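User: Structure with acetyl coenzyme *A, tokens only please.
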Amino acid sequence: MGYFMKETAKLTYKEKSIELPVTEGTFGEKGLDISKLRATTGLITFDPGSVNTGSCNSSITYLNGEEGILLYRGIPIEQLAEKSTFLETAYLLIYGKLPNQDENKYFSESIINHSMLHESVKDFYSGVPATAHPMAVCSAVIGALATFYPDALDPRNERHVEISIHRLIAKLPTIAAYSYKKSIGQPFMYPDDSLDYCSNYLRMMFSVPCAEYYADPVIAKALDVLFILHADHEQNCSTSTVRLVGSSMANLFASISAGISALWGPLHGGANQAVIEMLQNIHEDGGNINKYIDKAKDKNDPFRLMGFGHRVYKNFDPRSRILKKYCQGVLDTMGVYEPYLEIAMKLEDIALKDDYFIEKKLYPNVDFYSGIIYRAMKIPLNMFTVLFAIGRLPGWIAQWVEMHRDKHFKIGRPRQIFTGAKKTHYEPIEERQ
Ligand code: ACO
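Assistant:
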């Protein structure tokens, strides 16, 4: 599927011309293959932020930013959100097809069986302050898991990779819930094998040993859909990080730990927390939406409308459409009044009619509405990005596995255009100004 060459492009530099092969993907998207560029011309490309650079071939996720299309292994995100489950979608992404009944049973049972943490992992939590951001804790604990499984870390050993995949998907919700329990001083709750993935996570988050807990199926289902919507998004910042770290043959735990760190930033996964902080500011500031629209447009003001804009989507993010619909449904079912939803909808309405946002093609992204649903679920603000990480985990894994099987596999190592000092000499300290 995809990837074949039929055209070339000519590049002329000074008196020399070279033919560059044009590669073409499944949907006709084209790219210049510059892999021989430096060897034949001495030139490299310069592309800050990799805006025009394809770093790999991939058959996992297709996204068309102009038309607002998102497909996982060919299946539209809308169908998966409506019909699939998170674990089934995880299987689809990682193994390339929807599981049959036996595969589904085996995969789900294996995930349930691996959800407990080694008792010593709990000691890591004693070493961090209660105020620690859970993203920092999750990244550290995932990295530390490698120390518990030293015999199963070889990226070239299929059995090692398989068991690491199951361990990661099974344990991240437990690790995440423990980071929250630590922050509020409550005892850690062991996973419960009788529950589905999301109910189990909610129970570990919100139950205490001295009381009965019932995970609301409406909330569990909404969380499952949120995880599906976040499960992969091709070569974004955190996924590219996972690939880059993995390209050094670092183990899967180390690669995923780095991905969690990349996701934490407010320009990436951290935006879901930043959106709520922004809506809160607007609310506390008397709900003056136009003031914030003006701030976002002001070149001298660093403020940006959080949850708006996307490197790839220049149209509605299809995930935000699904979430907007879900948002109202979840709030209605739970009987929750959410003032931030009202502000968000007005903000979206004004922004979508404003020339600045129209010209720059800035639309709501997935983070714009996800935070409002998390709030309704009583998920604490600093856990929002952690939920993004749980959802994105299968995508990171699928991309890491695909990279290792790629016949073009190479360690990732970009070049640079050096702009620093020319060769100089070491000056003794007493002679320095
Ligand atoms: N509010 C106001 N102006 C914006 C916004 C915004 N949210 N986003 C982009 N712009 C403007 C920029 O100022 C820039 O204007 P200019 O051309 O006059 O300089 C233009 O639109 C293009 O913006 P860039 O930052 O160059 O676009 P890029 O593709 O690099 O960035 C990004 C995309 C980081 C998502 C950006 O839109 C942004 O900062 N959005 C807010 C943060 C956010 O919601 N992040 C979540 C992304 S989704 C995800 O990671 C899951």
